[in-house]
Amino acid sequence: MPELVSQEIQNYIEEKELQEGDRLPSVEAMTQMFGVGRSSLREALRYLEATDVITVSNGKGIYVRDVGTYRFAGKIKIEKEKRFLLSILDVRRALEGKAVELAAERITPAQIDELTACLQEYKLLKEAGKSTSQIDLAFHRGVMKAASNPILYSVLESISAMYELFFNEPLGDRKLFDDTYEFHHTMFAGIAARDPERALAEFNKMMNRIETIIRDY
Asked: Ranges for the HTH gntR-type domain (predicted)?
């Protein structure tokens, strides 16, 4: 709730075209405007003050501190998401990396056919200039299933909501998929050849590329 309120306050600043030094409505007025409690509003104000969007002067009021900072508020959000994705990436390296190794040892002929078909569809979508995010996700899930470890699969599925952030906006753009496309094929080649070391090496190349894309975004 405080994050939503802070966004509403920033929207208000933009809509009213407020400048540095302009006064915002009182706490009481904003609780009515945004339909929130005083505690949520005060948390939102503390966040905006910490990021230099506003300044709160006790007994005097709430003022816009730096319009330039407000304009870059979106970048603050992106930086937080980047840190979050990098943390998830650490988990992906550990858990999915193990799944890749196990898949190379345990994959069945039927699962090889399924992943081959998945990569063929991936190729067609890519060549047609269509979104490949969902087929990319389907490929990774296929590898997880091929690991034939229900506990590992359930753990990976339990964090699927966070995992899917790699395939959504703002960082899940086409560049992410174009730049890692080749590693899906080389990693799968290692899995199909039942070579865990080779498959894991290609998986780690993919993770390294994703990390670079996130850091450079």
From this structure: 1-67
